[in-house]
């Protein structure tokens, strides 16, 4: 209503110092560039690949890398490079979407638990314990079995299993802020829990949460690959890095057609590694004490 | 400047001082007990942080609430502004019982009663600009003052002696005294009738303390504010407060006018407290009363008079019978069976 008059200039000293610390992390900077390229490649998958990822060409099935197919073709003659790029869309999308669910649910529940305390806190935190103590893969396999495998179920399931990490961090931030005098001052003027969350807690929790979110993206990408590999995630003909690896389940393929599994395997490994490096860099950037 | 602040249209103008008989705030037998759990099986105990405190504040008056650390001053202050729910007792504001008011009533109350905190570093969010901090009370309550929020905030900054141009600066760019002024401006944003000042100058340098105290006095005169001034520094309280209430271990031990308390205190504890004020004109410990031992735990306070374990006049009666607050020869109310008489040395 009146927010225009108090628009604060953002990004003064603390943010700039964080950027400076992040840049001291060569692995994180390289990873950031790499992920940027992966994202761009996924966005521009069609012009980059020049092939339809689902076009079957039985005549040139199982052919090795060549001028026409840079990374070769699979058992039905589909272009591997094209499938790899389109799979990037799904894998990154699933990773980001499920991390977003985890962060939103975790931030909401964590700040509510911290602000209200008492039995609400107990309930939320026991719920977090329950989610953390279940073997997530097994549960997701069962859920996918019951609801039928789909990208949406997978995103929701992965997200729901990752919220406790974020929830605990936000709760910790909330508990330490709750007794701060500036929060008491806001309460004394009539600010309710929602106001406190919006103006004080979420901005303060953002740095640690962004670290957790990055790591959650990496985990989700790996988990998506696992599930799709098992046939419970992304369903063919849509390509994901996980279900591209499914093609490489036989020893003969592994031995004689390495282009089928090397490229998606490397894509998953490098992406997860890079996202993790970015997370490490972020952690050092937002919390100067943890830097070596 | 301040005239326009006080009498802007659309808001209730500040009423002139009422006849002195009608108090603004009345506190009766206020208690706050915190349950504590210890051990595996959760044997619960009660910390009697505030245990039956009564006082009243007239419009435009300043009541000093003094006592050592842990005597329940801050808890009392936080109950007044309803940051803590009282265990029992009654708080009356302008004739209305506000002890457990909720919703709209509480909202209105929060506009009339504000708080200033002790630590000028912890009481301002380091991520927010000064403009945002001072505008917060207006925005929380959806108030859009004539001329806009920004204008009002700049008026407030000027009122507390800060440069209105510093609207976009962050708290870390200010000194302790300036930060405390920001806190004062925030408390004034809703035009309260009474401000609970919880040790507002304890964290400041002595020279800055005087500036902030003088600011509070000016504001009091200009805006007809009443204060509940919580402090442990008796010199500051003497300078600022017309009436003084002395607390010990969650209880009120003496309430009276400044002269009564400072010149002819009736309660031994008040006397001991006053004699502990360092006075550079009288170096040495001639008239000093040295209290033995520590303050007992509020988990298990002494029977009868709570001060008896450290009192040099304590007798059997003090252990068995709790002294009520009664008028003593000095004219003040004090809770003591064997009150002191005469002026302080």
Description:
The complex is a heterodimer of chains A (292) and B (345). Chain A is mainly alpha-helical and 292 residues long. Chain A has a single domain (82-286), classed as MetI-like fold (Orthogonal Bundle), CATH 1.10.3720. Chain A is built from twelve helices and no strands. In chain A, helix 6 packs across helix 7, helix 7 (151-178) runs antiparallel to helix 9 and helix 9 runs antiparallel to helix 12. Chain B folds into two domains: 2-7 and 23-35 and 47-241, P-loop containing nucleotide triphosphate hydrolases (Rossmann fold); 267-334, no CATH class. In chain B, the strands form two sheets. An eight-stranded mixed beta sheet of chain B has the order 6-7-8-3-9-10-12-11, sandwiched between helices. In chain B, strands 2-1-4-5 form a four-stranded antiparallel beta sheet. The longest helix of chain B is centred in the middle third of the chain and has 18 residues, at 206-223. Classes of the chains: A mainly alpha (292), B alpha/beta (345). The A-B interface holds A 1-3, 5-6, 8-9, 12, 180-182, 184-191, 195, 199-200, 203-204 and B 78, 81-83, 106-107, 110-111, 114-115, 117-119, 122-125, 127-129, 131-133, 135-142, 144, 148-150, 153, 168, 170, 183, 186-187, 189-190. Chain B: This is Dipeptide/oligopeptide/nickel ABC transporter ATP-binding protein. Chain B: Keywords: ATP-binding, Nucleotide-binding, Transport. Chain B: Residues 1-22 are annotated as: Disordered. Chain B: Residues 25-274 form the ABC transporter domain.
Main sheet of chain B?
A: 8 strands, mixed
* N-to-C order of helices and strands of chain B: HEEEHEEHEHHHEHEHEEHHHEE
Mean pLDDT of chain B: 84
**What's the helix-strand series of chain A?**
HHHHHHHHHHHH
Shape of chain A: elongated
Strand order of the largest sheet of chain B: 6-7-8-3-9-10-12-11
**Over the alpha carbons, how many angstroms does the gyration radius of chain B reach?**
21 Å
Total domain modules of chain B:
2
Low-confidence stretches of chain A: 1-11
CATH architectural label of the largest domain in chain B: 3-Layer(aba) Sandwich
User: How many domain units of chain A?
Assistant: 1
**In whole angstroms, how far apart are the ends of chain B?**
46 Å
């Amino acid at each position: 209503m009146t927010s225009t008059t108090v628009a604060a200039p953002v990004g003064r000293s603390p943010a700039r110092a964080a950027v400076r610390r992040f840049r001291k992390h060569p692995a994180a900077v390289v990873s950031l560039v790499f992920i940027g390229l992966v994202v761009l490649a996924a966005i521009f998958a069609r012009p980059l690949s020049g092939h339809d990822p689902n076009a079957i060409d039985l005549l040139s099935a199982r052919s090795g890398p060549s001028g026409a197919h840079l990374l070769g073709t699979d058992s039905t003659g589909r272009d591997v490079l094209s499938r790899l790029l389109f799979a990037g869309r799904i894998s990154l999308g699933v990773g980001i979407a499920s991390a977003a669910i985890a962060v939103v649910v975790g931030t909401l529940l964590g700040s509510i638990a911290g602000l209200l305390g008492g039995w609400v806190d107990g309930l939320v935190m026991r719920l977090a314990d329950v989610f953390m103590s279940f073997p997530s893969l097994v549960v997701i396999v069962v859920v996918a079995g019951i609801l039928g495998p789909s990208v949406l179920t997978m995103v929701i399931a992965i997200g729901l299993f990752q919220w406790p990490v974020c929830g605990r961090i936000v709760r910790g931030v909330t508990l330490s802020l709750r007794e701060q005098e500036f929060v008491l001052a806001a309460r004394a003027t009539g600010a309710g829990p929602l106001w406190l969350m919006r103006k004080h807690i979420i901005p303060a929790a953002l740095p640690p949460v962004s670290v957790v979110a990055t790591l959650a993206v990496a985990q989700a990408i790996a988990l998506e690959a696992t599930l799709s590999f098992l046939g419970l995630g992304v369903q063919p003909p849509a390509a994901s890095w996980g279900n591209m690896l499914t093609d490489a389940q036989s020893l003969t393929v592994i031995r004689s057609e390495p282009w089928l599994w090397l490229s998606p395997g490397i894509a998953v490994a490098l992406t997860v590694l890079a996202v993790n490096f970015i997370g490490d860099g972020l952690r050092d950037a937002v919390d100067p004490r943890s830097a070596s | 400047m301040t005239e326009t602040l006080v009498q802007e249209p659309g808001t209730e103008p500040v009423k002139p001082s009422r006849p002195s008989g009608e108090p603004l705030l009345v506190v009766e037998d206020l208690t706050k007990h915190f349950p504590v759990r210890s051990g595996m099986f959760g044997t619960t105990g009660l910390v009697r942080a505030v245990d039956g405190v009564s006082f009243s504040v007239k419009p435009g008056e300043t009541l000093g609430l003094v006592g050592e650390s842990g005597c329940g001053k801050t808890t009392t202050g936080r109950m007044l502004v309803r940051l803590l729910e009282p265990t029992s007792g009654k708080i009356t504001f302008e004739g209305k019982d506000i002890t457990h008011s909720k919703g709209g009533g509480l909202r209105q109350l929060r506009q009339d009663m504000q708080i200033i905190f002790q630590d000028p570093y912890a009481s301002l969010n380091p991520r927010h600009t000064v403009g945002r901090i001072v505008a917060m009370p207006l925005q929380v309550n959806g108030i859009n003052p004539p001329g806009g929020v920004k204008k009002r905030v700049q008026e407030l900054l000027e009122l507390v002696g800060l440069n209105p141009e510093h609207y976009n600066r962050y708290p870390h760019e200010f000194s302790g005294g300036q930060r405390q002024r920001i806190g004062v401006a925030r408390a004034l944003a809703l035009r309260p009738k009474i401000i609970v000042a919880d040790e507002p100058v304890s964290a400041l340098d002595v020279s800055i303390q005087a500036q902030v105290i003088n600011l509070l006095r000016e504001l009091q005169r200009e805006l007809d504010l009443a204060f509940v001034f919580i402090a442990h520094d008796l010199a500051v309280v003497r300078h600022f407060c017309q009436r003084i209430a002395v607390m010990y271990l969650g209880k009120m031990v003496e309430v009276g006018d400044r002269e009564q308390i400072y010149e002819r205190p009736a309660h031994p504890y008040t006397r001991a407290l006053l004699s502990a004020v360092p006075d550079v004109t009288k170096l040495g410990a001639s008239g000093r009363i040295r209290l033995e031992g520590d303050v007992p735990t509020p988990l298990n306070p002494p029977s009868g008079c709570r001060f008896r374990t450290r009192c040099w006049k304590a007798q059997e009666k003090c252990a068995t019978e709790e002294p009520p607050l009664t008028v003593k020869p000095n004219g003040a109310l004090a809770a003591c069976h064997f009150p002191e008489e005469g002026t302080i040395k």
